[in-house]
Design brief:
The complex is a heterodimer.
Chain A lengths: L4 E3 L9 E8 L4 E8 L5 E4 L7 H4 L13 E11 L2 E14 L2 E13 L4 H4 L4 E4 L13 H7 L7 E6 L9 E5 L7 E9 L2 E2 L2 E5 L2 E3 L2 E2 L7 E5 L6 E3 L1 H11 L7 H19 L4 H7 L3 E3 L4 E3 L2 E4 L5 E4 L1 H19 L4 H11 L11 E2 L10 E5 L2 E5 L1 H4 E4 L6 E4 L1 E3 L9 E4 L1 H4 L2 E6 L4 E7 L1
Parallel strand pairs in A: 1-5, 3-8, 4-7, 16-28, 17-27
Antiparallel strand pairs in A: 2-3, 2-6, 4-8, 5-6, 6-7, 9-10, 9-29, 11-30, 12-13, 13-16, 14-15, 14-23, 17-28, 18-19, 20-21, 22-26, 23-24, 25-26, 29-30
Helix pairs in contact in A: 4-7, 5-7, 5-8, 6-7, 7-8
Chain B lengths: L7 E8 L3 H14 L5 H4 L3
Classes of the chains: A alpha+beta, B alpha+beta.
């Protein structure tokens, strides 16, 4: 109920961070911040942060040493998982490049619990999302840059350098684009929901094969503050299977495929919508937009009585999509059932990375996103993180799973893994996002 | 830098994935535990 408390995702900053410098105050106090299109506030540690160890390892803002400081004092809290960054709003001049944003409102963090910020290379976060998700309805730095006429065009663009041998991290351009850092034309799509930079996305293909899950459209956000690429479990399971990433072995999933697989296939062959199949066979109830668990008693294969719970309903919905995807490839029924059963071993843990075999990276498939009618390929070199060299190297997939229910979901979060290969333009004036091959 | 074309360019630094920060990431995920939820993540 605290209007100043709000939720901003804390992301995998520690996996691969991109950050830059700003200054606050007069004379300028320097801070290293993440330029984050997935949030909308500016916060940095305060010199009045006494009880959080993280504050002792980072630059802190000292209001008393700034002649341009203006007291505000409104409390602010940004929650993330088990903890929260909290503090209060202050106003001061913020310098980004050589632009000075006068009397910018920002959060002086007086508490930064947890280990995450302790080890972070950055001091704070500069949000570049829309005001709609700004904690305390604070006007974002970018809004002030535009409203005060400090930039020529109301757009900014990101280039993230994914070349591991190049020390240059990348570049953010306020007011335009840098032609050196992209090839060809940008493909623009409208922002569909202001808050995050959210847009509509089409179906995803694995090795040229459509997954079908987003055939009727999904939402996606372009998020510079997250390292990875997050999507619905159903599709991430298919990717995991294709790249050999292990997941949870789901008993419910196997039971559904065993017990209902053939019936589901028959329904799908009868042109039934995959989203309705599970309600049709009684595993889920269909409310018109999404399936919900029936919560009734049933007898599973091993003879034990079990509850047809949400897990089975979810598994059934996933299996229906997998089967439909195989049906469009004209696979045999036996092959389709075997494929669905195999996928039951690859269901990802929500929001966690999966290990993969480094030796298989070169044979992993291209994953293709469809945005604005154009295909955007990600190669294994784009989506696999490799740590170390030689026999000691370890590889993890950059794809993680997270399920957001309709109407907001299904949702993809396209983080640095996508924004690395694709130069991204955030067009605030025209309310659109554009992608072009990075150079 | 202002480039005479009305744009302002900020160079970004990067930090690569390594064993130490991966460990921190894992600890973070572990700490986050069951309190994290997509509902809150997306402010629904």
């Amino acid at each position: 109920n605290d209007e100043n408390a709000d939720m901003v995702p804390l992301k995998n900053y520690l996996d691969a961070q991109y950050y830059g410098d700003i200054t606050i105050g007069t004379p300028p106090q320097k801070f290293t911040v993440i330029f984050d299109t997935g949030s909308s506030n500016l916060w940095i540690p305060s010199t009045k942060c006494y009880l959080s160890v993280a504050c002792y390892f980072h630059s802190k803002y000292k209001a008393s040493q700034s002649s341009s400081y203006r007291k505000n004092g409104k409390p602010a809290s940004i929650r993330y998982g088990t903890g929260a960054i909290s503090g209060y709003f202050s106003n001061d001049d913020v310098k980004v490049g050589d632009i000075v944003v006068k009397e910018q409102e920002f959060i002086e963090a007086t508490s930064e619990p947890g280990i995450t910020f302790l080890l972070a290379k950055f001091d704070g976060i500069l949000g570049l999302g829309f005001k709609e998700i700004s904690v305390g309805n604070s006007t974002p730095v970018w809004y002030n840059m535009v409203e005060k006429g400090l930039v020529k065009e109301p757009i900014f663009s990101f280039w993230l350098n994914r070349n591991p041998k190049d020390p240059e991290g990348g570049e953010i351009v306020f007011g335009g684009v840098d032609p050196k850092h992209f090839k060809g034309e940008h493909t623009f799509v409208p922002v569909t929901h202001k808050g995050y930079w959210q847009f509509d996305m089409g179906d995803l293909q694995i090795a040229g094969k459509p997954t079908g899950y987003c055939a009727k459209g999904c939402s996606a956000i372009a998020d510079s503050g997250t390292s990875l690429l997050t999507g619905p479990s159903t599709v991430i399971t298919m990717i995991n299977h294709a790249i050999g990433a292990q997941g949870i072995v789901s008993r419910e999933c196997k039971a559904v495929v065993d017990q209902y697989g053939k019936t589901m296939l028959n329904s799908l062959l009868a042109q039934e919508d995959p989203k309705k199949v599970c309600s049709q066979i009684g595993v889920c109830a269909y409310d018109g937009t999404q399936s919900v668990s029936m919560g009734i008693q049933s007898v599973v294969d091993d003879g034990t009585s079990g509850l047809l719970n949400q897990a089975m309903c979810s598994a059934c919905e996933m299996a229906a999509v997998w089967m439909e995807s195989e049906l469009t490839q004209n696979q045999t029924q036996e092959r389709i059932l075997a494929y669905a059963a195999e996928l039951c071993d690859h269901i990802p843990t929500q929001n966690q990375q999966s290990a993969v075999d480094c030796g298989r990276v070169s044979s992993m498939p291209i994953v293709t996103f469809s945005i604005g009618g154009r295909s955007f390929d990600l190669t294994p070199q784009d989506y696999i993180f490799k740590i170390g060299e030689g026999v000691e190297s370890q590889c993890t997939s950059g794809f993680t799973a997270m399920d957001i229910a309709p109407p907001r979901g299904p949702l993809w979060i396209l983080g640095d893994i996508f924004m690395g290969p694709y130069h991204t333009v955030f067009d605030y004036g025209k309310g659109r996002v554009g992608f072009a091959k990075a150079a | 830098e202002r480039n005479g074309d009305g744009t302002i360019r900020i160079g970004l630094k990067k930090r690569k994935l390594d064993r130490s920060n991966r460990l921190a990431s894992q600890l973070f995920l572990k700490n986050r535990g069951s309190h994290w939820s997509p509902k809150h993540y997306f402010r629904l």
